[in-house]
Each structure stands twice: as structure tokens, then as C-alpha cells.
């Protein structure tokens, strides 16, 4: 263990750190440039279905970034950076616009369900959030009932006092509010009973370990969340269903709606429209 070796290790760590900072800086610059005109961002849509017959009951819009030719980045690759840098506000307002316009298109084709989009805490808290949404609904002639907003349990509960009145306003407007990744955050039972939300979206991690007839701590959580949803009058949906076994186990637990690759991956709008025609 010579001092020189130790210094080498420190150098390696520092270099990795600097490389990381440089990479983040480059990505941030690209993100900021891409947001100037916005055309590199698009939405894919994943159906939410009735577990019994697979028919659509809604769709969720998920953001994609056409980063380079042939390279599409998933939200996980840039949303954390957008959040940390404040660019998220611009990004989410773009998403809102694209989602409302898709809602209009789907309604024109005779679909009656809502289009959901994901938001972050910072957006919802912005004073321009509701006026902007109202303006978009008016411009695209979309009814609030055709719109659903998803916010994660973690973000909703971290600022319950601040965000709940805004969620309440949105609900009173006729918009559906869903609590995303439910079960991974820390909901206080007291807050849950007064939370202004319509639906709990049970996180994929609980569905992942689901095997028919087998109990483990996650399957117990699925049962608990089911009872909780009945007690507090929330609708409930399970996300990340990949197998028929998982679907059947959820049906056995009383779950009626779900979302996941078993039914459909997120699809570009034209492919979604085809899917909807076939699924009826
Ligand atoms: P989320 O809202 O919980 O979305 C579900 C994620 O799980 C999506 O990943 C979806 O493609 C994926 N997924 C759905 N079904 C399955 C399945 O059966 N198996 C597997 N392995 N994955 C499945 P995606 O599109 O990468 O989105 C990740 C997260 O990024 C979303 O989680 C959401 O929190 C966030 N996000 C997506 N779009 C937006 C956006 O427009 N604005 C904001 N603020 N966040 C967004
Ligand atoms: Mg979501
Ligand atoms: Mg989710
Ligand atoms: Mg999730």
C-alpha cells in the first residue's frame, strides 16, 4: 500500500467524477438546445386496460427524446437532469400541449377515455400550471374529463399541504388525478384519507414478484393497497404487468384495471390508434 498507489486511486476517482460532470454538462446543453424548438420530443402512448377482457380504459403519454438519428432516449435518461436544472418546466409544458392535442385526436376517433400525462411537483406548484392547462383545453376543445394527470406518491406526499389544494382544484375542474408508483413512497395514512386523487397506480415492483398462488411480502402489499383503496374510495390500477400469471393473480385479488407490456408497450400515436381499433 504505497502512497503512490493511493494517489493513483484518488486520481482515478477524481477523473471519473470530472468525466461525469462533463457528460452531464454536455447533455444539459443538448437538452436546453433541443427545448428551444421542441421538435425532437414526442410522446408514446401506453393503453390502460380492463384486466378481464383487455379492452382499453385509458392511455398514458410517456415522453421520448429523439436524441440523434436512430437514438431515442427514455425519460429516465434526461428527466432527472431536467428537474435538477429547472428545464423540467419547459419540458412538462411541452408534454401537456402534446397530450392535450392527442386527447383531441383520440376523441375525434370516438374514444371516450382520458389521456394521462406525468407531471412533476415543480410544475403543479407553478402559478401558470392551471391557467396554461385551461388555455390548452379551450384551444383544442378538449373536455377536462378527457385529461388525467399522474404525479408520484413521493412527490405528492413530500409536499402534501402545498399540493393537495391544487389537486383538489384540478379534480373540481373534472380532471382525473392519479398517484403514480404508489407503494414506493411514504404516504401518511392521515393524509391519504384526505388526498385529492381519483386513482392509485400500484407500482410495478409489487407486480414483478407476483406468482399465482404464492404469497410473499409484495403480494401482501397488493392486498393491503386493494383494501386501502376500497376504504378510501380510490380507484386502483396495477402497472408493469408482463405475464398472464401476474394478470390472473391480480384478478384474484380483486384488481380490475392494469397496464403493462402484456397488453401493449408504449406506442407512437398512429400505432396506438391501430391497437385501439383491434382491441375495440
Ligand atoms: P411511470 O409513469 O411509472 O411510467 C411507467 C414506465 O414503465 C414507463 O417507462 C413504461 O414504458 C414502463 N412500463 C410500462 N409497462 C411496463 C412493463 O410491463 N414492463 C416494464 N419493464 N416496463 C413497463 P418510461 O417511459 O421509461 O418512463 C419512466 C418514468 O419517466 C415514468 O414512470 C414517469 O415517472 C417519467 N415520465 C415519463 N414521461 C414523463 C413526462 O412527460 N413528464 C414527467 N415529468 N415524467 C415523465
Ligand atoms: Mg406515470
Ligand atoms: Mg407509474
Ligand atoms: Mg413507475
TrEMBL record:
Domain of life: Bacteria
Domain EAL: 24-280
Protein name: Diguanylate phosphodiesterase
High-level lineage: Bacteria, Pseudomonadati, Pseudomonadota, Gammaproteobacteria, Alteromonadales
Residues of the full protein shown: 470 to 749 of 749
Amino acid at each position: 500500500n504505497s502512497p503512490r498507489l493511493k494517489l493513483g486511486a484518488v486520481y482515478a476517482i477524481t477523473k471519473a467524477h470530472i468525466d461525469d460532470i462533463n457528460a452531464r454538462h454536455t447533455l444539459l446543453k443538448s437538452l436546453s438546445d433541443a427545448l428551444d424548438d421542441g421538435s425532437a420530443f414526442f410522446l408514446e402512448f401506453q393503453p390502460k386496460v380492463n384486466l378481464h377482457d383487455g379492452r382499453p380504459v385509458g392511455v398514458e403519454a410517456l415522453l421520448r427524446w429523439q436524441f440523434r438519428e436512430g437514438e431515442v432516449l427514455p425519460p429516465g435518461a434526461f428527466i432527472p437532469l431536467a428537474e435538477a436544472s429547472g428545464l423540467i418546466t419547459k419540458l412538462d409544458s411541452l408534454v401537456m400541449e402534446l397530450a392535450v392535442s392527442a386527447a383531441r385526436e383520440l376523441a375525434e376517433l370516438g374514444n371516450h377515455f382520458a389521456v394521462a400525462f406525468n407531471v412533476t411537483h415543480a410544475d403543479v406548484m407553478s402559478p401558470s400550471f392551471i391557467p396554461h392547462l385551461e388555455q390548452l383545453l379551450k384551444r383544442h376543445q378538449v373536455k377536462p374529463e378527457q385529461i388525467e394527470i399522474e404525479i408520484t406518491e413521493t412527490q405528492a406526499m413530500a409536499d402534501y399541504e402545498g399540493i393537495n389544494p391544487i389537486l383538489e382544484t384540478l379534480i373540481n375542474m373534472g380532471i382525473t388525478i392519479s398517484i403514480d408508483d404508489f407503494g414506493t413512497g411514504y404516504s401518511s395514512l392521515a393524509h391519504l384519507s384526505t388526498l385529492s386523487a381519483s386513482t392509485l397506480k400500484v407500482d410495478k415492483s409489487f407486480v414483478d414478484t407476483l406468482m399465482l398462488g404464492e404469497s410473499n411480502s409484495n403480494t401482501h402489499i397488493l392486498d393491503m393497497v386493494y383494501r386501502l383503496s376500497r376504504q378510501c374510495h380510490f380507484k386502483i390500477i396495477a402497472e408493469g404487468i408482463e405475464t398472464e400469471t401476474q394478470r390472473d393473480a391480480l384478478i384474484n385479488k380483486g384488481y380490475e384495471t392494469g397496464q403493462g407490456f402484456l397488453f401493449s408497450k408504449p406506442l407512437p400515436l398512429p400505432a396506438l390508434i391501430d391497437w385501439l381499433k383491434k382491441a375495440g
